[in-house]
Amino acid sequence: MGFALALALLLLANPLDPTGFLQVQMKDKTVAIADRADYTLAVEGVSLVDEHRLQKMVEALAKMVHIEPINATINENDAIVPEKKGRKLNEKVFIQQFYDYYYGNGAVTMQVPVQEVYPKVDQALISQVRKKMIGQYTTYFNSGNKNRSHNIMLASMAINNYVVLPGETFSFNKVVGKRTKEKGYLQAPVIVKGELSEGIGGGICQVSSTLYNAVDKAGLHIVQRYSHSRDVAYVPPGRDATVSWYGPDFVFQNKYAYPIMIRARSYHGNMYISVHSFPEIEYEPRHVPSVHHHTPEEGPASPPILTEPTLPSM
């Protein structure tokens, strides 16, 4: 208010033109029209900008302009797919231009001020972070259970090509998101040897458990991991990581000086995850027991009882 009040006092002798409109355009299309009178608050005879209403217009324009940047990735043919820059509203510039219009005269036409948003991962980064594998793990599932196999595939795609920068933490729930019908997840109430996961999105725990073993093998810092109340068939005893949207999460931190990248793929009853980094990385691998190559048996489901989280690996 201080800036607006000072301008208003200076311009009291220069009354506003109530018939002048502001047209906001994106290229050759008008996306917003504003009238000074609609954005005016009268305070003791002084015309001031209604900042609450201005903020609503800013939010609407920001939503209209926003394009999310797309990271560079590695496709199924092992080729790099280039990144794409995004964009967002330059709010500071827009607000300044609005005040220039408001305390000026007549009609004004302006272009929406935008700024580029660069993706987190570009071709240069992904070409280096892919070079050295520092951990990997494979588990197996019954591909005949179509719904569960489908859910495993969707969660694998969500974490595939994900890059964790030095010092960053990876949250399975945050990266994969809520498992819903709208996202394509299916009902899979029967999991493995009496272990029930989530209903919608059943099978997700096999992805998080495979990821846990891969990153643990790479020597990364395990921040949060919960085990099921009983052993599951797809990993050795005590090597699982249960997750649920409203419950436990699996979280790890990249403690190394270089970024790491997760590669995940499910195919023909195999759930495979590998962890990669720069060739210069000095890492501290851990021994992790492997899984016997066989298809887990499936049986009636019963609710799990969560145990206490394991202590972070040091």
List keywords for this structure.
314 residues, alpha+beta, four-stranded antiparallel beta sheet, three-stranded mixed beta sheet, 7 helices, 16 strands, 24% helix, disordered N terminus, disordered C terminus
How would you describe the overall organization of this protein?
The chain is an alpha+beta fold. The protein is 24% helix and 24% strand. The chain has helices spanning 2-10, 51-65, 91-102, 123-129, 146-159, 172-176, 204-217, and strands spanning 21-26, 29-35, 40-43, 46-49, 73-74, 80-81, 86-89, 108-111, 114-117, 132-140, 162-164, 169-171, 221-224, 251-253, 260-267, 270-277. The strands form six sheets. The chain has a four-stranded antiparallel sheet.
Low-pLDDT runs of 5+ residues are 3-18, 189-193, 299-314
Q: Tell me roughly what share of residues is in helical segments.
A: 10-25%
Strand fraction equals: 15-25%
Please summarize the sheet with the most strands: 4 strands, antiparallel
> How many strands in all?
16
Instruction: Output the radius of gyration.
Output: 27 Å
Sheet/helix structural class: alpha+beta
In a few lines, what is going on in this structure?
The protein has 314 residues and is of the alpha+beta class.
Helices and strands, with pairings:
Blueprint: H1 2-10, E1 21-26, E2 29-35, E3 40-43, E4 46-49, H2 51-65, E5 73-74, E6 80-81, E7 86-89, H3 91-102, E8 108-111, E9 114-117, H4 123-129, E10 132-140, H5 146-159, E11 162-164, E12 169-171, H6 172-176, H7 204-217, E13 221-224, E14 251-253, E15 260-267, E16 270-277
Parallel strand pairs: 1-8
Antiparallel strand pairs: 1-2, 3-4, 5-6, 7-9, 10-16, 11-15, 12-14, 13-14, 15-16
